[in-house]
Amino acid sequence: MKKLLPALLAAGLAFAPAAFAQDGKGPNENSASEQAAAGQDPAAEEAEEGHAETPHYPLKEPEELDWSFAGPFGHWDLAQLQRGLKVYKEVCSACHGMKLVAFRNLEALGYSEEQVKAFAAEYTVQDGPNGDGEMFDRPGIPSDYFPSPFPNPQAAAAANNGAAPPDFSLLAKARAAERGFPTFLFDLLTQYQQGGPDYIHALITGYGQEPSPAVEKSIQPGTYYNPYFMSAPALAMPPPISDGQVEYADGAPQTVDQYSRDVAAFMMWAAEPHLVERKATGFVTMIFLIVFAGLLYVVKGRVWAGTPH
Ligand code: HEC
């Protein structure tokens, strides 16, 4: 055990430069095919021939974006969250539910009680059973949760080529990708917690690229190539949104890039509505602990001042 730890550390350090080199890659470079073309990497060359070791997904790392809620002094950009809600409602909610978020939670996005009531009423919610034992449909009220588009995961999968669209409630946190050594150490210092939104943005904007021939062979029929997808070279979700599809009233650009930023920020809010408060509380707590440690040190000196040693 005593020997294992230094050995692991040494191995980590040996691999660190390679990990750094990967991090430095731009979002539009396909490292595997490029290296193979240049003939630098024997493993990648083998991959080209189609009998190589298991490839690592995602094929490309997400780009790190600036989010208003990043860092210890982050805040929600309410206009952005409202736009994200609009994108979710008009596009993504056709396939993705959000069953842990209630309409009344939307007041946190700056809507009044009346607005939330009107918003909820646009949805049809199943209620019941009534006196006859029948389930019935009625307009939504603020205490209802976002209804799911499919009655059960099996129906969702059947309608989407065998892969059920995951619920959005916690997705932004569930997809906060593993970043590996040594990046996760720096993440502790920089308080990087935006892996989920970065991933979602990369995924939504990552369609339409050309797979390398080796990768192309492993793409299943009925799936769409996306080098940012975490679990495979392609996923069952078709490119969900295109430029100009959702109308913004506040003049923000109506592009896929902007839509995916907004919906990713909105999903982060849905997954952790108290993110900003948590960070603010954490910051005050750290300041308190530092001041308190100083006070304790002074007090200790005073208490033991008269004791000879
Ligand atoms: C036509 C239905 C459909 C629409 C519309 C749709 N999705 Fe999906 N989505 C899917 C399916 C199906 C999957 C599961 C894909 C898989 O696992 O292969 C999925 C998966 C995802 C995932 C998870 C990927 C992962 O790592 O597992 C995210 C994130 C996502 N969708 C975001 C969005 C966003 C954002 C929108 C709206 C802009 C949207 N989707 C609209 C069908 C849809």
TrEMBL record:
Compositional bias annotation for Low complexity: 32-42
Keywords of the record: Heme, Iron, Membrane, Metal-binding, Signal, Transmembrane, Transmembrane helix
Transmembrane segments annotated in the record for this chain: 280-299
Chief subcellular location: membrane
Keyword Transmembrane helix: yes
Gene3D superfamilies: Cytochrome c-like domain, Cytochrome c1, transmembrane anchor, C-terminal
Record bears the keyword Nucleus: no
Segment forming the signal sequence: 1-21
Compositional bias per record (Basic and acidic residues), positions renumbered to this chain: 49-58
Domain Cytochrome c as annotated: residue spans: 79-271
Residues covered by region (Disordered): 22-58
InterPro entries: Cyt_c-like_dom, Cyt_c-like_dom_sf, Cyt_c1
Localization, UniProt: Membrane
Protein name: Cytochrome c1
